[in-house]
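Hi R.,

As promised on Friday, here is the backbone we talked about, encoded as structure tokens. Could you run it through your design pipeline when you get a chance and send me back a sequence?
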């Protein structure tokens, strides 16, 4: 695993632990809802991750983009599927999404290099 991916995952894990240790029921329920929403259901995990990727790109959340790229990668998504998904996100979100498209492409390359 590349250092960039490892650092992202370690930071995310550390901060999630801290946040969830505060015993806030609302935050815990939101985290739980997020976890359950992306589980296999009528839509496969792969599809849900690509939907999450579009939403994350349109909302311009680089951490969310990285998370969905990694989980999509682990779900067997191809580079062509990611690029088509990101093309939809750029179409919907407009040119303001392009800087996030660049970061997404770079992060995907990091994932592929492992």
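Update: got your reply. Pasting your designed sequence below so it's all in one thread:
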């Amino acid at each position: 695993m590349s250092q960039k991916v490892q650092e992202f995952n370690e930071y995310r894990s550390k901060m999630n632990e801290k946040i969830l240790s505060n015993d806030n029921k609302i935050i815990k329920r939101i985290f739980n809802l997020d976890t359950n929403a992306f589980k296999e259901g009528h839509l496969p995990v792969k599809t849900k991750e690509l939907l999450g990727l579009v939403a994350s790109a349109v909302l311009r959340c680089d951490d969310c983009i990285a998370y969905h790229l990694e989980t999509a990668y682990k779900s067997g998504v191809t580079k062509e599927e990611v690029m088509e998904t990101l093309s939809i996100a750029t179409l919907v979100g407009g040119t303001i999404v392009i800087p996030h498209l660049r970061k997404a492409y770079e992060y995907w390359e990091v994932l592929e290099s492992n």
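One thing I noticed while checking it: The radius of gyration is 14 Å.

Thanks again,
M.
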